[in-house]
Amino acid sequence: MIVLLTLALLATGVAGTVVALTADPQRQAVTLSVYGLLLGTVFVLAAAPDVALSQLTVGTALVPLLVLLTVRTVRRRSGGSR
Known about the structure:
elongated; 3 helices; 82 residues
């Protein structure tokens, strides 16, 4: 159990670094979703299933969706093709 938690924490740290170093907002939203999934796994392994469920709902689904919708709206209004 300790080994799994350690591996999950290391993967979460790597994923957080990837999110911070990703420049494109659309790709960053996808990596943020993966980060949220890994963080939810850490919470499950730490015996906090209620926090894990909240993290999976908000961090894996809602926040990346809102980021993607915001990027789409801003690009549409600014006339950008990216």
